[in-house]
Design a protein that fits this description.
Blueprint lengths: L5 H12 L13 H13 L12 E4 L6 E4 L4
Antiparallel strand pairs: 1-2
InterPro entries: Carbonic_anhydrase_sf (IPR036874)
GO molecular function: carbonate dehydratase activity; zinc ion binding
């Protein structure tokens, strides 16, 4: 989702099919920032026990590398 922007994607779909998607593909230019935001969202959930470990990772499709993303301090 790093290789396109939402509007570009929708434009291409519309060009190919004549229909513009009403849903958002939810692309993100910075995977680490998106994972940090997700970690914060999960950790702030009142139904999650405070002792539950929450971790996030980014998978690099070109190298096969899995990188752990550290939460914001």
């Amino acid at each position: 989702m790093l290789t396109f922007r939402d509007d570009d994607f929708k434009d291409q779909i519309e060009s190919d099919t004549g229909l513009r998607p009403r849903w958002a593909p939810e692309s993100f230019p910075e995977p680490e920032a998106d994972v940090r935001q997700s970690i914060a969202r999960v950790e702030s959930d009142p139904f999650l026990l405070h002792s539950t470990a929450v971790r996030g990772f980014v998978y690099d499709v070109s190298t096969g590398e899995l990188r752990e993303v550290q939460r914001e301090k």
